[in-house]
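quick one before i forget lol
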Amino acid sequence: MKRFIAVLVTVFTCLLGANNAFAADDSNALQQIKESGTLRVGLSTFVPWAMRDKQGDLIGFEVDVAKRLAADAGLKVEFVPTSWDGIIPALLAGKFDVIIGGLTITPERNMSVLFTHPYSYSAVQMIASKTLASKMTTIADYNKRSVTIAVRSGAYPVQTARKLFPKAKLRQFDDETQAFQEVLNGNAQAALASTPTPEQMVIKNPDSLFMPFKKPLTRYATGFAIRQGDFNLLNFLNNWILVRTEDGWLNNRYQYWFKTTNWQNLVNENN
């Protein structure tokens, strides 16, 4: 009996210690941000989420969101541009505090990071070559071994392509510009990307590209991502999203960046 009681005491002591440590970790991230006075934001360049203007500065929807979030909290903002396929590992390694970069909320990613409530919604659409695919207007037309589809590596359209076009040859690139160029060069019948980029590419290249589907192939929600256990930081971010959703600010910025082209003359052509 004495041994049993001793074991119970040991177990409860360990559990108490673990809970205390977890509680400390819970408040640590937010406290560290407050003490540093700077919110470090990881992002990757996607037009119009984040891109360089003609002076080399970052602009875009996510940039506006991060700047407003930091300003509302009385913090400075530091952007940490990161390759898309390495952005979650960089977050987990402590390179920055939060990903604000159009990151799609998925169960698989949620196993590694904590997601906030959605702060925006987007969709995946296809562009196709008028030379190679002018008569291809159905899902079945593109779901063939003879078809090549270009996508950006690590982005949500990769999942869409694998789900809807499992028989097609998937060719992945480091950025969307390369994926679209593959279609323009005649090396792929089509490319997938998040709206509004496909629509804008068709407008820029009306003689070469078209959109075979009127409706988006998939729709998805995006959220901020932080490290597991940072629940105080999660609470703060969720409440900020709630406030800026209710007052219309997030929708206002979304409409500007995704539904107009008023900003295009500011953009560096190399984005």
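fyi The longest strand covers residues 120-129.
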